[in-house]
UniProtKB/TrEMBL annotation:
Coiled coil: none annotated. The lineage of its organism: Bacteria, Pseudomonadati, Bacteroidota, Cytophagia, Cytophagales. It comes from the Bacteria. This is DinB-like domain-containing protein. SUPFAM superfamilies: DinB/YfiT-like putative metalloenzymes. It holds the Pfam family DinB_2. Transmembrane segments: none annotated. Residues 29-162 form the DinB-like domain.
């Protein structure tokens, strides 16, 4: 018999407080959180800004994962970005200032953002999912569910890029 902790998050069953239509969003975010934490365990901070073949760095993806998820959650709530969010967006561009705690801080920031996302999902009324939400400064129209699904999709896309780049830079570092 399979142990639940060995299964991917989506196969472990519904999350009790998350509305049924938002379960896939929550599952994707939790899976991303688990995979990111595993991949960044003992990741050397000195490799955060490495860009083999010009790809985006692990440091960029770590910053962007938390930042874009936070911004998309804001749009889903029909709120404008704050000055703090805009400032954070402007510093997502590498290179990062690095110290011994940088990886830990960035992983914690992502974990905190996922926790806030789960709380928001738990408190989302499913009847609002077809409502229009404006995205970005231009307030491009989407739907509430569209923004939330994109938040999960965008997170998994950047996680995949981070995972590949992290393996790549570690393999180069090992030579």
């Amino acid at each position: 018999m399979l142990k639940p902790e060995t299964l991917e998050i989506w196969l472990r069953g519904p999350l009790p407080k998350v509305p049924p239509l938002l379960q896939p969003v929550a599952h994707a975010l939790l899976q991303a959180r688990d995979e990111l934490n595993a991949a960044m365990h003992d990741f050397p901070p000195a490799l955060l800004n490495e860009r083999p073949a010009g790809v985006a760095s692990v440091g960029f993806h770590l910053q962007h994962l938390a930042g874009v998820l936070d911004r998309l959650l804001t749009y889903a709530r029909r709120e404008a970005l704050t000055a703090q969010q805009l400032a954070a967006l402007n510093v997502e561009v590498p290179p990062l200032a690095i110290d011994a705690k940088t990886v830990t801080k960035l992983v914690e920031a992502f974990n905190d953002t996922v926790a806030r996302a789960l709380n928001q999902l738990e408190n989302t009324d499913e009847t609002s999912l077809a409502e229009v939400r404006g995205v970005g400064r231009a307030q491009v129209p989407s739907t509430h569910i569209g923004v939330l699904v994109h938040a999960a999709e965008h997170t998994t896309r950047h996680l995949g890029q981070l995972l590949v780049t992290a393996k790549w830079v570690r393999s180069i570092d090992m030579r």
